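Example (one chain per record):
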Amino acid sequence: MTTEKFITPKRRLEQERELFMTLSVIIRQLDVVPYFSTYQAMQHFTETRHSETNDELWVLEHPPVYTLGVAGKLEHLLNPGNIPVHRVDRGGQVTYHGPGQLVVYILMDLQRRHWGIRQLVHSLEQSVIDYLATQNISGERHEKAPGVYVAGRKIASLGLKIRRGCSYHGLSFNVAMDLQPFRGINPCGYAGLEVTQLSELGVTEAFQLVSRQYLQQLMIALSYDDFKESKL
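Predicted structure:
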């Protein structure tokens, strides 16, 4: 004799909502914004969001800055010069942000959609790979070094933090920037790791057009059905 697990009316309603749920997201276009205040804003958003809060994608550039993740070792800061360095709570090692690099912060409720961090990482990588394919560029993953690579050179980096079942931090994608500051670090903790960018690979579209085209791929990879655009 088998017994059925009792499902409360409240849980049944939740299941029905999940089945027919439309996944929408707010996209905030923030232009060039300081790193640390944006980092604090991400933390505040994540601490104060609730089960009905929309996911958000923050699309922006940063002035020159190095960031060290929770695994970051100072030995990988070779010659930072006068570029600010911030230690932050994302995963990973050291990376560089600067003008001409597309940064997208992923403020997603993973619990709501029953995703784990591996699925999020895979989806973010896939969004870059799919965008590159539209430009006839072959992007690839490296199993032990998250991100996206073209012919062995890194073009996109990932760093995430999961708090209360929700993500923040995100992805950086080299479009048309000064790559020289990457020589001041071991990117992502790998000595000698080379980086590249779209402008070196023959992509000549304006930054804003690249951003729009990439966001289309990101929406697909993250399974969003609808979006609204806004400012902070």
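Caption: Residues 117-134 form the longest helix (18 residues).
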